[in-house]
Design brief:
Blueprint (H helix, E strand, L loop, with lengths): L21 H4 L1 H11 L1 H26 L11 H26 L1
Helix pairs in contact: 2-3, 3-4
Amino acid sequence: MSAGRSHYAPCATAVTITPMPVFDEKQEELEHYETMMGVPRGRLAVTMDTITDAMALVGQHGVYCQSQRWPGKPVMDIQIVMKSLTDAKELIQSVMEELKKG
C-alpha cells in the first residue's frame, strides 16, 4: 500500500465537468416552453424539469446510501436535499399559477 493512502478509501478518478451556461445548454427546451407559455412561465417550466431531474438523481443515490439508524430510509443529508428540492418545486408551481392568473 502506498504512503498516504488509507485502505478504507477507494481510489477514485477525478472527473471535471465544464459548466455550460444554462441558456446554451437548455436552449431548445427554453425556446419550446417560452413559445408555449411565455418567457417567465417557460423558464420556470424548464427550471421545474431541471429540479425533477436532480430529484431523480438524489433519489437513486438515496437507494444506495441507507441510514444505519433507520433502515430503509436514506441518510439524513439526502432526506434534507430531497425536502429542499420538493419545497423549491412547490414554490415554483405557486409562482407559475400566479403568473397564469395575471
